[in-house]
Amino acid sequence: MPELEAWEKVYIGGANANSFLNSIHGEIECEICHSGGSPNAESVEDIHADMVRDPSAIGACDDCHADIAQANSNSLHTNLWGEKKAIELRGECEFATCAEDGFNVNCNSCHTTCGQCHVSRPNSVGGGLIRNGGHKFRKTPHISEQCTACHGSRIAFDYTGEAQGNEADVHRSRGYLCEDCHSGEEMHGDGQSQNPSGHYEGRYEVATMPRCENCHAEVEPSNSFHRKHAVADADVRLQCQVCHSQPYKNCTSCHVGNDGFTIDASTLSLKIGHNNEPNRDEYDYAVVRHAPVDQETFLNWGLSVSGYDNYPTWGYASPHNIQRWTEQTTTDGGSCGGSCHDRPGQERQGFYLRDTDLRDELGNPLLDREANRPVVITEADLH
Length: 383
Prior knowledge:
Blueprint: H1 6-10, H2 14-21, H3 30-33, H4 44-48, H5 66-72, H6 76-79, H7 81-91, H8 95-98, H9 100-106, H10 114-118, H11 143-150, H12 152-159, H13 170-173, H14 184-188, H15 213-216, H16 224-229, H17 240-244, E1 248-250, E2 267-269, E3 271-274, E4 285-290, E5 314-316
Antiparallel strand pairs: 1-2, 3-4, 4-5
């Protein structure tokens, strides 16, 4: 997303200014939230000296929105517990002692505060008040100025159909916005974690996360393919995306090198593996995406990933690129054999994540081969 011009970041004028000034937030004097400034000073520089640019970062929202602020203070969206847990598993260490300093420099800089979802653009795209938004407080974040400003490289890329050969997600084509599936309760934190830590450790644990069956429960027994793979008592139950996702972006060696920002090119593919997500254990097989990590990801933190094999780099995924008809559902003669199923003793032809995906062009095993053994489809699994 292009960064705004300096004046665009702070401009409040016209109808947008009137809308803000006539709102409940507009009745509050600027310095009440933006503390540290000197509104009676004579020069622009002195007026803004030591002014707090992002009041929500120091708790300005908390008194009026106490319940939401309390939930959000422990949410995945704010604290990135899932990323921290993965670092602990791979680093075989306590996050606070082995990774927190580096994480705060390289990772937290991309993540956000209340104001960066409800008033301004996120800092990760240069900040500033949202385009044509003035200083208005938006109860629902703006999909492109705020949601996909952060979640653009994979989610928006998938959802809008930017990948060559893909169509936009069917929900996007029908006008669905982020909030139609993702509730404020999910984003702020629903407080329902049963973990001893008191918080979720991954997004698929969240009780209020969106699920396909919330809207599509009636489709499970609607045709022979669903009856074979989608109903609760199916012999082999598939995650919905196994049949209804298009190819999606996979990352390999990201955030590596001494600066922590070197990123290799991503690839576009669709891979099906054993479901290794304990919080969605109703499925036997799921689409899996390669995490943006390798053995040098934390090199600039001085962190050795001695437990690199403890945690698969191919993991449960839920791409935002759903279509009713995909290469997997476009069958030949009423059988999925030509698109999905590999057969024992035959050359690979479908989408399964196989051992050959974990080898280089010369057949040598990749560094993450051992880590992904629980996910890989073996010859013995084929049927």
